[in-house]
Structure formats: structure tokens, C-alpha cells
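Researcher: I'd like a candidate sequence for this fold, 389 residues long. If you have to choose between options at a position, lean toward the conservative one.
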């Protein structure tokens, strides 16, 4: 690290390159934390979310219908630390969900509000201070997933995926949920707003298809993603205009919003160009996906080569997004991993599992390890040393 700082002082690398190199080193060295854990109170952990406003609070939803909030900030860092429970809504509470909580999400701009959806057909908008629902949206069928845009400034829409073939948009400003998107032929398993365009929404369904929508135009989708890029004709027995050869259960936009990652029950992970809708044909190999619920993937940001974290049975598979190269399999849970979420401020990963635990994966602490440099930076560096034996 000191050598890299010396390169910066001499003008060989910029401050931005130094930061990017150190972030890259940190996310490539993730390992199970030896000194930190999260207080265990729930049964199976189905979903997680870190508040984007402060990066201090972790929100979790469980199979026992409970919701919990943890303080994950640790200052100053002691030798060992258990992230404490701040507050919770357990199943005995009259305002709690009746069945398994499938998705939780913080309000993007502050920690005063969060949302949750469950198999009891209800999406709830919570006041964090009172731990009571400020608004509830009821649906005819169980809710698999919901998502609120992190970048929207002109709308407050929550997209909701249910066991029906319709995608419902709930407006927080007026409490209505009348706007629906029609196009899928099976239950919608996942929804995700773009991290770049506030009106762009991706949806995935049991009909094996992934669709991109401009929600200002509800009559038809912008495009239906085709895994064959239109090269399969009508004479083939394989279905055209399908993203996977099985249910599509997971969606995740890259941090720059230019690509979309999808995961299906065909044990395949695919990367799509959002502008053209083409399959980039990056080969990630076989990624076991034996869940029939929404799969909650996560991606890193600000690194030289960003990574995607995919829950796969009892472990988390980590790949380079654009090359497909496997980096590591994070193993520590004793049962199926249901969700993972990346902390962009500290380059940490949090994962929840059916074993009731939330694990923390943090960068390896190694003073001698140098930040990763890309090829442009490496060509200015020689191997000369002034040390004398």
C-alpha cells in the first residue's frame, strides 16, 4: 500500500486510480469475518437490505413473518463485535405479516421509512420510528418481490411481482395501485428498476421471459430478451424470445445500469446489454438455482472489474461480471442461502440463509498485500528496489 501511495505522489497513478485499485483489492479478498457477526433472532432469513442513506442499518425479513433492524456500524472496532438488534416486528405483533416475508427495502433517501412484502398478499410501508404500517397495499395473490427505484426523482413508484402475470405499480404519493403492466404469461418472480434510467423497469417470470418496460408507456414492453439473439427460427423446437430454459427467478442491474444480470432455474446466469437487448454470451458455467422463490443477487461497484454475488444452494458464487471468470465460492452457511447484499461503503457482503444466520464477509486484513493495478498502471511500474541485502 505504501508503494502505491508513493506512485500517487510521483504522479504515476491518480487518486481515482488508487481508490479504484484499493476497492478492487478489498472485494477480491472477501472472507468470512472472524471478529464480527449479527445477533440471531429469526428463523430462516429470506431477504436483506442495507440503508443507502447512512449505510448503518441492516434490514431483514424472515420466514417466520418477522422483520428486524440491526446496527452494523462498529466504531471504534473492538476485537470482536456482534451487530445488535435495534428493533423488530415479530409474528406476535398485531401489525406483523401473517406469512413469510419475501422482500424488504429501505426508502432510498432516509431511514424513516421502509417497505416489506409477504406471502400474505400484502405490501406494507412502515414508519421506522413507530414500527407501524403507514400504508398497506393488498393483492389477490402472494407477493414474490417488490422494488423501489434508488435514483427516481420524478416518481415514487413501487413495482410489485405477484403470483399473477401482472406487474403492479404502487404510487406512494397517492396510495393508488391501479397501474399494471401486462405481457407475461406466468407468475412474475422478480422486478428491478434500472440503476441509470428512472423509468426503466425489468421483470422476470415463470414463462421463462424477461421484459424491459418504460413505465410511462404501459401498452407494451420495450423489448423481450431473447437468449438466442433472434438466431433461432420457427422450424426449431426451442422457444424463441425466452431468456432462459426455465423459470427466471433473479434480476440485477449492474452499478452503471448498462447491463442486466438474470438467473434462471436452468442453472444459468446471463448478462444482457440493456441498450440493444442482446445476450452478451458471457459464460459463467453452471450456477445451481434450486429455489422456486425470488433469488436476491447483488453486485459490487467502483472496482476495476465489478463482481456479482449469486446465492447458489448453500454457498455464494462470485464471478467477474464481464468476463464470467469465477473468483471464489463463499462457504459458511449450513443451509440454502436466500439473499445477499453488498455494502458499497466498506466493501462488505451480508448474506442470509435458512440456517437462521446472517453472515458478514469482509476484506482480508493484510498489510503486505498491494492494491490491484490494471495493465495501464502496471506499465509505469518497474521492479527495481533500493533495498540492499
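Model: Candidate sequence:
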Amino acid at each position: 500500500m505504501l508503494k502505491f501511495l508513493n506512485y500517487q505522489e510521483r504522479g504515476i497513478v491518480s487518486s481515482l486510480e488508487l481508490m479504484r485499485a484499493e476497492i478492487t483489492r478489498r472485494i477480491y479478498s472477501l472472507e468470512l469475518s472472524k471478529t464480527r457477526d449479527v445477533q440471531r433472532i429469526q428463523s430462516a432469513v429470506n431477504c436483506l437490505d442495507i440503508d443507502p442513506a447512512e449505510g448503518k442499518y441492516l434490514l431483514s425479513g424472515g420466514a417466520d413473518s418477522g422483520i428486524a433492524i440491526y446496527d452494523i456500524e462498529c466504531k471504534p472496532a473492538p476485537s470482536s463485535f456482534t451487530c445488535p438488534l435495534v428493533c423488530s416486528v415479530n409474528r406476535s405483533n398485531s401489525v406483523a405479516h401473517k406469512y413469510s416475508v419475501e422482500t424488504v427495502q429501505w426508502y432510498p433517501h432516509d431511514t424513516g421509512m421502509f417497505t416489506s412484502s409477504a406471502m400474505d398478499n400484502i405490501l406494507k410501508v412502515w414508519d421506522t420510528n413507530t414500527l407501524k404500517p403507514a400504508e398497506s397495499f393488498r393483492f389477490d395473490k402472494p407477493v414474490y418481490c417488490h422494488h423501489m427505484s434508488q435514483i427516481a426523482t420524478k416518481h415514487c413508484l413501487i413495482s410489485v411481482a405477484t403470483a399473477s402475470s401482472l406487474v403492479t405499480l404502487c404510487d406512494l404519493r397517492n396510495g393508488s395501485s391501479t397501474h399494471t403492466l401486462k405481457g407475461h404469461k406466468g407468475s412474475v418472480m422478480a422486478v428491478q428498476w434500472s440503476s441509470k434510467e428512472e423509468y426503466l423497469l425489468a421483470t422476470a417470470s415463470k414463462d421463462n421471459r424477461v421484459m424491459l418496460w418504460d413505465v410511462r408507456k404501459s401498452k407494451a414492453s420495450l423489448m423481450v430478451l431473447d437468449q438466442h439473439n433472434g438466431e433461432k427460427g420457427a422450424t426449431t423446437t426451442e422457444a424463441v424470445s425466452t431468456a432462459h430454459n426455465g423459470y427466471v427467478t433473479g434480476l440485477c442491474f449492474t452499478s452503471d445500469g448498462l447491463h442486466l444480470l438474470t438467473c434462471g432455474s436452468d442453472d444459468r446466469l446471463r448478462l444482457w446489454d440493456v441498450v440493444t437487448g442482446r445476450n452478451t454470451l458471457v459464460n459463467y458455467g453452471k450456477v445451481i438455482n434450486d429455489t422456486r422463490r425470488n433469488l436476491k443477487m447483488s453486485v459490487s461497484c467502483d472496482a476495476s472489474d465489478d463482481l456479482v454475488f449469486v446465492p447458489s444452494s448453500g454457498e455464494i458464487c462470485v464471478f467477474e461480471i464481464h468476463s464470467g471468470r469465477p473468483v471464489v465460492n463463499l462457504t459458511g452457511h449450513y443451509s440454502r442461502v436466500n439473499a445477499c447484499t453488498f455494502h458499497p461503503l466498506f466493501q462488505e457482503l451480508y448474506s442470509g440463509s435458512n440456517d437462521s444466520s446472517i453472515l458478514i464477509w469482509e476484506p482480508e486484513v493484510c498489510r503486505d498485500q498491494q492494491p490491484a493495478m490494471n495493465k495501464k498502471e502496471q506499465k509505469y511500474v518497474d521492479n527495481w528496489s533500493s533495498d540492499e541485502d
